[in-house]
Design a protein that fits this description.
The protein is an alpha+beta fold. The chain has 14 helices and 23 strands. It is globular, with a radius of gyration of 25 Å.
Length: about 475
């Protein structure tokens, strides 16, 4: 168990708080390999819940899982010029194996477009073979110089979807569909509100026609890119000659998409909901949604309390609730409270002799408020209702915090003041000039997170560019980001 020590408050040092929370909750640790992390069981359990939910959502939209090799011939990356240029600084290369120098070096996958589309070229012959809807769960390696647990590490876990279609319209529909799946997951499971929209050309994925993103705002008012979905057009299909006979009898290249989220979402969950006492985990993703802590003094009390606690555990588990009975001896209840609070368990049920006599339990919520007594009768239904309410409250509270840290129709002076102050999202006009975008980034460290989808745009479209004053082509959302 982690040391019983108060965390650095978020308001004092957010970065220190984040690292200390991960250590206290035993979510991850640094590896002997620089830049790599070990995901501990408590952290991996959250990732598993994320995987289960997302995997079902992928399958519900017609996708199948497959697996492709970790090693990619180096020549594959060079076939798509923008792709190789975008990933070259991050690539790890294997030059020797089996005691010999390889005839062709192998890249340790930074992403799998090239190897996957080389296989699609073998599998796709006709329009009847389309669409191909494949996802894989795997690890990738991107050589990072500055790392932070979960948010940016040399090796990380993710899923990457790769699809092939007969038309651009079908590929665009798929790209936006999967962006919607990510948004649904982030809001309904993570209780993390996001903005969706298109990335500017300077921020899009290397080799894509268009990149769309889910952007969330963390408690320190920095943005975090939660997931991306890319319309790759025919760029990779041309590079790897992925062609098909059309229904009209002609020959055409397929239209591809790719989309992915990673273990970065665990970091996003921490920074969206955590407090100065530790992790706060939304009920839908918690390893244990309920922990039962028995309280007793004598052996006679112990027997009665444990028997009642075990009955309670079985009833809750039978109702589909993930529950843990902490029956460890030699550890005071207060120490158990501290541990489970730090690990973010949504609900704690305390069972003592008086509770057993009254056929009741004492409930403590991780999100605060007074403890309350719940009757044992019908307790599973009550717990489900409380967890659903907690899930919704976490989402609404996060959305309210985001909106409080956002400004619209900003002038240049307001933008600069916001970025130099507490930060947050700034909605304002943008001329579309990459030079203007680069100048803002250089001088303020803020980037355009998205060109927001219609539902997120301001009621009145901005007329001029916030930075240079020329006519605005689009509204953009800026923020400093992870």
């Amino acid at each position: 168990m982690a040391e019983n020590k108060a965390l650095t408050p978020r308001a004092v040092d957010f970065s220190a708080w984040y690292n200390e929370l991960i250590a206290r909750a035993e979510l991850a640790d640094y590896s002997p390999v620089r830049g790599c992390m070990v995901i501990r069981p408590n952290g991996y359990a959250i990732w598993e819940q994320m995987q289960r939910a997302l995997d079902q959502m992928f399958k519900d939209t017609g996708h199948q899982n497959a697996y492709f090799p970790l090693f990619i011939p180096q020549s594959f990356l060079s076939r798509e010029a923008e792709h190789v240029e975008g990933f070259a600084p991050e690539v790890a290369v294997v030059t020797h194996a089996g005691g010999k120098e390889l005839e062709e070096p192998l890249v340790v996958r930074p992403t799998s477009e090239t190897i996957i589309y080389a296989m699609y070229a073998k599998w796709i012959q006709s329009y009847r073979d389309l669409p191909v809807l494949i996802n894989q769960w795997c690890n990738v390696v991107r050589w990072e110089m500055r790392t932070r647990l979960f948010l940016r590490t040399t090796e990380f876990l993710w899923q990457e979807g790769h699809t092939a279609h007969a038309t651009e319209a079908e590929a665009e529909e798929e790209t936006l569909r999967m962006l919607g799946v990510y948004r649904t997951f982030m809001e309904e499971w993570m209780a993390m509100p996001v903005l969706t929209g298109r990335k500017t050309d300077s921020e899009r994925f290397a080799g894509a026609l268009r990149t769309y993103s889910c952007e969330a705002l963390m408690q320190d008012n920095k943005a975090l890119q939660g997931g991306t979905s890319h319309n790759l057009g025919q760029n990779f299909a041309r590079a790897f000659e992925v062609t098909f006979q059309t229904a009209a009898g002609g020959l055409d290249h397929v239209w591809n998409t790719s989309w992915g989220v990673s273990t970065r979402l665990v970091g996003a969950l921490i920074m969206t909901h955590g407090d100065d006492a530790g992790l706060v985990c939304p009920p839908r993703l918690a390893q244990y949604q309920v922990v039962i802590v028995p309280i007793y003094r004598s052996d006679a009390e112990r027997a009665n309390v444990l028997e009642a606690s075990d009955r309670l555990k079985k009833e809750l588990a039978g109702a589909g609730i993930r529950v843990h009975l902490d029956a460890r001896d030699g550890m005071k209840p207060g120490a158990k409270y501290y541990e489970w609070e730090g690990r973010g368990v949504p609900l704690r049920l305390e069972v003592g002799p008086r509770d057993v006599a009254a056929n009741a339990v004492m409930l403590a919520r991780r999100t605060g408020g007074k403890k309350e007594t719940l009757p044992m009768a019908g307790i599973a239904a009550q717990v489900h209702e409380i967890m659903n309410r907690m899930q919704n409250e976490l989402l609404e509270n996060s959305r309210a915090r985001r909106e409080a840290a956002s400004i619209r129709g900003a002038t240049k002076a307001q933008f600069l003041a916001h970025m130099e102050g507490d930060g947050g999202f700034v909605y304002a006009g943008f001329c579309g000039d990459p030079k203007c975008e680069a100048d803002i980034k250089e001088k303020t460290k803020a980037t355009i997170r998205v060109l927001p989808d219609e539902e997120f745009r301001s009621p009145v479209a901005p007329a001029t560019c916030m930075w240079c004053g020329t006519p605005s082509l689009v509204e953009a959302v800026w923020a400093k980001a992870y």
